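tool_log.txt
---
The assistant was asked to compare two proteins side by side. It first ran the structure predictor on the initial sequence, then on the second. Raw inputs and outputs are pasted verbatim so the downstream comparison step can read them without reformatting.
(1)
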Amino acid sequence: MYVQIEDSFEAAHHLVGYEGKCSRVHGHRWVVKAAWIGDADKSSGMICDFKILKERLRNLLIRFDHQDLNYYFNDPTAEYVAEEIFRILKTEKIGSLILAYVVVAETPGCQVMFSEKDYTCCGDRPKAEHALAGS
């Protein structure tokens, strides 16, 4: 079972080596979702108290709020931001939960997901390949 939380922060950045408007400093409301995998506790019925997960994510994102992300990243694309947030959250163990993925959106409708493992698989093959194989 997955549990997912969402938070956001405001920050500026510019894309290094990119030709276009995004090479200039501009800002976004970065929306971040993080999901963990775990088993629901038999007595509470919960994987984890949402409050604990929200505090973990908020405590991480606050360092980027109203900052220039180029100070923290060599090239702060949504992809690199998602990967770094994942790596930091992964170091902070929460019981037996496993961090599954982090999604970062810098504009509505445009998002990236970072995961170290493909948690959407059926066996060793992705779902689409699994369906095409007739299994």
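(2)
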Amino acid sequence: MTPSELSEELSIKMPNLSAQLSVLKEADLIHAERDGTSLTYRVNLSVLESTMATLMEQLGVGAPDDRANGTGGGTADA
């Protein structure tokens, strides 16, 4: 999604959204792709899945077999 689409969908003002996107990019949870003057953000699924697996492990949520069978990798539109 573009920043304008995200801002509209999430009802977040652009300066706040920009700050949040910067944090997510720094954590490698999203990728920004530039096409001319447009930016499109995509979720980094492999990092998100790894982060979620760690969080689930720390919270004791889910069976260990469930986490081991993940497909992992790739990106998806944010």
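---
observation on (2): The chain has one domain: 3-77. The longest helix spans residues 45-59.
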